[in-house]
Specification:
With about 280 residues, this protein is α/β, with parallel strands linked by helices. The chain contains eight helices and seven strands, in the order βαβαβαβαβαβααβα. It has one domain: Rossmann fold (3-Layer(aba) Sandwich), CATH 3.40.50. The protein starts with 8 loop residues before the first strand and ends in a 15-residue tail after the last helix. About 40% of the residues are buried.
Length: about 280
């Protein structure tokens, strides 16, 4: 296997479990040095996974794996992430994957300001703050990759009287935060165009049953509404080494696989059996 990210200095937020941990694993398998960041250093009280568990899993690849514990809901605490990551990596961050997300699902009627603020801090303000912290060194180097993970819930509904799933009423606030992330991604890409810094989002076409997603909606999904973790990760990785003109895009994981002709591999970088 060619280690296409050999020596690349990367940060993946929300990498204690789920999609973030899987992206970090795949990057390490391809030779990247990775900083893992989230709040959960050790076992979460409800969900499987932790930063230490991810680090232990990545150790077999022989690359640098470091941890920065931070609370992305805190505007001050999250400002430590990029400087501490650069110090741990021994140089500026080259690839930033903003995967961390807060998904609080409830109807807008009665949705508290406190809960809305938590989602917008994690899903909008934190990715922007981290991108702005990482961008100057990327610009100075003449290249860099910022990938924000979004969601199809950002898309607008047709509106009444078009029927919709009853559970869809619970996703409007989360979708609004992801719509804001998409717009910020597009705007930042425009501002940085020509510097070599690429800024894109990627969202799954179907649900990816990470630990959190499985707990929220796993029992309500049909098999055709689910895509594999490996597909989602591969559709993300293409944006971590794309060309300078691939920027400002709001992309879909499975569409990326088709557009870039990418082979889906296991999280350890190996070719799936029978492929």
């Amino acid at each position: 296997m060619t280690r296409r990210f050999a020596g690349r200095r990367t940060v993946v937020t929300g990498s204690s479990r789920g999609i973030g941990a899987a992206i970090a694993e795949r990057l390490a398998a391809e030779g990247a040095d990775v900083v893992l960041t989230a709040r959960t250093l050790d076992q979460h009280e409800h969900l499987e996974g932790s930063l230490n568990a991810t680090r232990e899993r990545l150790a077999r690849f022989g690359t640098g794996v470091h941890i920065v514990v931070a609370d992305l809901t805190d505007p001050v605490d999250r400002l430590r992430v990029i400087p501490e990551a650069a110090a741990a990596l021994g140089g500026p961050v080259e690839i930033l994957v903003n995967n961390a997300a807060a998904s609080i699902q409830a109807p807008l009627t009665g949705f508290s300001v406190k809960r809305r603020n938590i989602m917008f801090e994690v899903n909008v303000n934190a990715p922007l703050d981290l991108a702005l912290a990482a961008a100057p060194a990327m610009v100075a180097a003449g290249e860099g990759w910022i990938v924000n993970l979004s969601s199809g819930s950002a898309d607008l509904w047709p509106g009444p009287p078009t029927p919709f799933e009853p559970t869809a009423l619970n996703i409007a606030a989360y979708g609004a935060s992801k719509a804001a992330l998409n717009r910020i991604t597009n705007g930042l890409a425009m501002e940085l165009y020509g510097t070599g810094v690429r800024v894109n989002t990627v969202e799954p076409r179907a649900a990816v049953l990470s630990e959190g997603a499985a707990a929220l909606v796993g029992d309500r999904l049909r098999p055709d509404q689910i895509e594999s973790m490996e597909e989602m990760v591969e559709g993300t990785l293409v944006l971590c080494d794309c060309g300078p003109d691939v920027t400002g895009r709001i992309t879909v994981s499975l569409d990326n696989l088709d557009e870039f002709g990418v082979e889906v591999r296991n999280l350890d970088g190996s070719v799936p059996t029978g492929a």
